[in-house]
Amino acid sequence: MTVLSYIPLFFGNLRGWQFIIVVLVILLLFGGKKIPEMMRGLGKGVASFRQGLDEARREINKATDTDASDGKKPEKE
């Protein structure tokens, strides 16, 4: 799913001029220099989150591969 498919969830019925006003208010509140810094931080956070998910998947796959090769059934908690 793309980012554009999530926009209606956040902005509801904002159209045309209303959206432009929201963007201008955000620019006034945070300034032109802070917005790129915030987006950079958000990007790093998303990348870190994805890396954590990948590591968790590798650990799970590693555990299931080890159990399958030993011929043991995985333990249930």
Structural description of this entry:
- There is one protein chain.
- By secondary structure, the chain is mainly alpha-helical.
- The protein is 77% helix and 0% strand.
- The protein has 2 helices and no strands.
- The protein has helices spanning 7-11, 17-70.
- It is elongated, with a radius of gyration of 22 Å.
Mean of residue pLDDT values: 79
Radius of gyration: 22 Å
The structure class reads mainly alpha
Q: Portion of residues in helices? A: over 70%
Task: Label the overall shape.
Answer: elongated
Distance between the termini: 34 Å
Largest sheet properties: none
Strand content is: under 5%
Ordered list of secondary-structure elements with their pairings:
Elements: H1 7-11, H2 17-70
